[in-house]
Amino acid sequence: MENPRPPATLADVAERAGVSRQTVSNAINNPDLLRPDTLARVQQAIDGLGYTPNQAARHLRTRSSRLVGLRLTPAQEFTANMAMDRFVRALVEAAREVGYHVLLFSGGPVEEGELPDPLGGYDDLFRSTAVDAFVVTDTYLGNPVAVELTRRRAPFVAFGRPWDDPVASHPWVDVDGAAGVAAATEHVRDLGHERIAWLGWEPGSRIGEDRRAGWHRAMVAAGLSTAGLEAAVADTVDAGRQAAARLLDTTAPTGFVCASDTLAVGVLHTLRERGLHAGPGLPVVGFDDSQVAQVMGLTSVRQPLEEVAVELIGALADLLAPTERTTHGILLAPTLAIRQTSV
């Protein structure tokens, strides 16, 4: 068996292109210093040899690791929420397209009965320059991550609006949950239903409040009553199951729109226990379009997570650019994936 060919070196590129090693280095790190014809010749040699710059050496020269830090949130048991998995995969791919890699980290161990440290893991990575910037996903009300990272002048972009900081200057990308839920409610209304129940989360979640606003807005716009047709519960399948049972016993809704696929799965359990069938006569709609929703045939609001990831990485590139660029917020529209539980 032949020995594998050793990877090309900077010297190999210089020899093939007929230039000095410094010229090759400039082509990689400071291409503006070279004439277009010289840059093209070096790039052709790089492509021909399959040369990959030594990232460790590049880090030492430029203080850039080409790594983006993303803290993993604790797993939620008894839920159908797998949107974060899809988002992480999309973020990794979007980062790779522009020469970055995503470094996943945790907030450290959490003792039983204690809440996780909201800044756990961030400081160590930032102080060691192990990453160039962060993508923050914890933007719930009162979370100090964005405030503290801003105070430390740590570059970051956020998946989620700065709910409690209207003057925040960091870039963010979010999905218009209210619009998605409004579309879901209108879909159920178009099927001929007027008693459309809302299963949402307990108070304190700005995301949950935003999604509820979409249901309420659509109901009011259609001239429909919302009295007795909503429940606020924990985001678990069992909580959704019990809430659906209570609503069916008290106000007899003929359709359900839910803040998550997890709650919607709970509704489906209750319907099955009562010998009822979700469909156009008794529609059920979730939110997130998780793999569970796809397998179970659940109609669900689908977040454009791939587009979110691309926009976040684009904002990150702007943030890390040599010349300062304007920060911005982007609100993306979700879509409705219609399946068996409403058709």
Automatic annotation (TrEMBL):
<keyword id="KW-0805">Transcription regulation</keyword>
<dbReference type="InterPro" id="IPR010982">
    <property type="entry name" value="Lambda_DNA-bd_dom_sf"/>
</dbReference>
<feature type="domain" description="HTH lacI-type">
    <location>
        <begin position="8"/>
        <end position="62"/>
    </location>
</feature>
<dbReference type="Pfam" id="PF00356">
    <property type="entry name" value="LacI"/>
</dbReference>
<dbReference type="Pfam" id="PF13377">
    <property type="entry name" value="Peripla_BP_3"/>
</dbReference>
<dbReference type="InterPro" id="IPR046335">
    <property type="entry name" value="LacI/GalR-like_sensor"/>
</dbReference>
<dbReference type="GO" id="GO:0000976">
    <property type="term" value="F:transcription cis-regulatory region binding"/>
</dbReference>
<protein>
    <submittedName>
        <fullName>LacI family transcriptional regulator</fullName>
    </submittedName>
</protein>
<keyword id="KW-0804">Transcription</keyword>
<dbReference type="InterPro" id="IPR028082">
    <property type="entry name" value="Peripla_BP_I"/>
</dbReference>
<dbReference type="InterPro" id="IPR000843">
    <property type="entry name" value="HTH_LacI"/>
</dbReference>
<dbReference type="GO" id="GO:0003700">
    <property type="term" value="F:DNA-binding transcription factor activity"/>
</dbReference>
<keyword id="KW-0238">DNA-binding</keyword>
